[in-house]
Amino acid sequence: MDLNCIKAYKLDALKSVRKTNEAKYIGEAGSCTDAIVTLAEDSEPCINKVDAGTTNASEDSSTTSVVQTDNKKTDDKRYVSKADLRKNLRRMRNGPGRNNCSGGRVENSKGFLPNSFDRVLLDAPCSALGLRPRLFAGEETLESLRNHATYQRRMFDQAVKLVRPGGVIVYSTCTINPGENEALVRYALDKYKFLSLGSQHPKVGGPGIVGSFELSTKKYTEEWLTKHESQLVQRFDPSSTLDTIGFFIAKFDVGQKDD
Ligand SMILES: C[S@@+](CC[C@H](N)C(=O)[O-])C[C@H]1O[C@@H](n2cnc3c(N)ncnc32)[C@H](O)[C@@H]1O
């Protein structure tokens, strides 16, 4: 196939599906024989970036508390927690987040109709626990890890709607947390019976994690993969001899949808 006939879009992964049955989105994804959507922000048409976002800015390791002074009232001093400070630093370094994105297409997009795309790459925002070196370790809690898993499922739901039967979804993260990797795959396969794991080429990473996890309080459980499923995904373990960052890739083939 001629590569010129691949149209790629970057979308807001939480609102990429058009809600109403209005006229087709200006993107006209269907006019090409092969359309790819990358669920990430700051979009430019026809550019498909697949690498995980990394950063080279340094983290402020200051241990002193920080005081921000309001310009209007010089006496009005506000103490900012170190967690908030780190969050702000990251925002300055990585650019605006999804609620404040500057990409014209993302802002203007009313989304696409279901089944508009042949392929979706969901290179999802995540806890980034696979990054090396760890520049901001120790910020995640069990609760925040679960929060990542929650929005990733919502993004995945959107991806499933966007891809036509016969298409492909690739889901990836740069974290080693199985709750955002194997458990997402379990969720996907259990919820959408028309999805199946596809084989990947090249295959460089190791297998996914098999089994399940239960907190001793029994308040939280996570289901992971079967042995067969684990062979179809790629888990990159930063402590393995491969010498990579922590990364995870699952490829889903989309079968005939029920609706
Ligand atoms: C792992 S990085 C993906 C990097 C991307 N593949 C690239 O090359 O730029 C995840 C990205 O998702 C972005 N993001 C966060 N929320 C999003 C949303 N609702 N929709 C789309 N992208 C989002 C983050 O800002 C971050 O840049």
From TrEMBL:
GO biological process terms, alphabetically, are: RNA methylation
What residues make up the catalytic site?
C174 (nucleophile)
Q: Which domain of life is it from?
A: Eukaryota
Polar residues composition bias: residue spans: 53-69
Q: GO molecular-function annotation terms?
A: RNA binding; RNA methyltransferase activity
- One Pfam family from the UniProt entry? Methyltr_RsmB-F
* CDD domains on file: AdoMet_MTases (cd02440)
User: For binding S-adenosyl-L-methionine, which residues are annotated in this chain's numbering?
Assistant: D76, D123
- What InterPro entries is this protein classified in? MeTrfase_RsmB-F_NOP2_cat, MeTrfase_RsmB-F_NOP2_dom, RCMT, RsmB/NOL1/NOP2-like_CS, SAM-dependent_MTases_sf
- Keywords (A to Z) from UniProt: Methyltransferase, RNA-binding, S-adenosyl-L-methionine, Transferase
| Residues covered by the SAM-dependent MTase RsmB/NOP-type domain | 1-255
Xref: PROSITE patterns: NOL1_NOP2_SUN, SAM_MT_RSMB_NOP
Q: Where is this region: Disordered?
A: 51-74
Per the similarity annotation, which family is this? Belongs to the class I-like SAM-binding methyltransferase superfamily. RsmB/NOP family.
Q: What is this protein called?
A: SAM-dependent MTase RsmB/NOP-type domain-containing protein
